[in-house]
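Dear all,

This email documents one entry for the complex benchmark we are building for the journal club exercise. For each entry we list the sequence lines for every component of the assembly. Then comes the predicted three-dimensional structure of the complex as a token string, followed by one or two observations. Please use this as the template for your own entries, and keep the labels exactly as they appear.
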Amino acid sequence: METLTPAKSLVQMTYEAILDEICTGSLTPGTRLSQDHLAAQLNVSRQPVNSAITMLKAQNFVEDTGRRGVVVAAVDRKLFDAIYQFRAAIDPLAVELSIKRMAEKDIAEAREIIARGKACVEAAQSQAVLQADIDFHSLIYQLSGNAIIIDTMHLNWRHLQRSMRKVLQHPGMTAQVWSEHEQIFDAMVAGKTAQATALMRAHVRDAPNRISNPKG
Amino acid sequence: METLTPAKSLVQMTYEAILDEICTGSLTPGTRLSQDHLAAQLNVSRQPVNSAITMLKAQNFVEDTGRRGVVVAAVDRKLFDAIYQFRAAIDPLAVELSIKRMAEKDIAEAREIIARGKACVEAAQSQAVLQADIDFHSLIYQLSGNAIIIDTMHLNWRHLQRSMRKVLQHPGMTAQVWSEHEQIFDAMVAGKTAQATALMRAHVRDAPNRISNPKG
DNA sequence: ATACCAAATTTCGTATACAGAATGCTGTTT
DNA sequence: AAACAGCATTCTGTATACGAAATTTGGTAT
């Protein structure tokens, strides 16, 4: 019989809880993270909180003030741009690797995500649109079968989640995004590797511009 | 006056100490990491050791046994291949970004690394060759100016360090590598972006084959 | 001799305790 | 009134303590 882990460690739970609050905006940039306060809030001792903060620091979600303790890191345009440069290389690779590995059920899942994304655009539910965006690209990372891509991009999207929350207030901006998603995925299903990767590369390359110059 | 940090935290020092031992092979795959033992060895309490191990676990340098404690992760050919797939996308990007950003002193540093690499190949000092290899590629990541590339590839090379230690026992295998490094860098200095990135892509693409079929 | 069960020991995860550093508060001096 | 010195307070990093889980050991029964 398989000995499935009963519950995650407190460090892991604490880490995820804090990271969620940072990425969803409950904890805004500059907010000081008091270990005592967080420990009380999450009903754990300071020990798991301290470990969790150590990890968040290593991943640049919080920053040392030099003084005492850490604060939630600022949302940084430079970091956003760096991740998009990075994605311009990695996302097309993930597309290429995925094409050979897609199964029927993966295709169905992607179609569901695309439908959901479009529906949320219609309904102007910006947070749900962002989640669908994350889901779409994460699915492709998963399908790539490359553990490095999966792990690395998971973290990067956590940062993007922070950056994009602000920006996605502009409704309508994402309509074209979902048309592009669909085109990319159609090309993948059709096995057109060169076309799919080119579309993905363009998709990622254009995204930062759309955010700089949102024209509705 | 600048308040330079007097010393790194014990967690950080402990993390680096353990990671070094894993990557240099002092701690071999499968070795159990006892917190008590490590704490005694490093003259710290179990608390920093515990935090450090949590981080190493998240980065796949150690793995849970399901039982008690963690062991040094196996050197995994799948992981090696995944990183090289990844590098095939990222290293050319780093080259492209670096070309516009190289200063005289960077060029001198690269030349020094290349000279050192070649000398170590001649002297058949495989560990020093590996270090020069790491230095060469890390310099390009640095020059890219992209923080995500720098951080991500730093971790990935730690994994590669483990994989390549074994393999680099084959002397002579690396002679061509350093010729390629030089060609890549010459193209970079000459500002030939397309050529430099193409050479880097080929360089990374061929490396895993050279390791699978070493022919001296 | 081998297999099995229970006590003892190891060791991990988490909580709590402690020490040092940084901030703030208060009283005094100019 | 403003500024500074020094004490009190707060808070982090690290050490130690505690409880639970798991492995090992020793003994017994077959």
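Observations: Residues 77-99 of chain A form the longest helix (23 residues). The radius of gyration of chain A is 19 Å.
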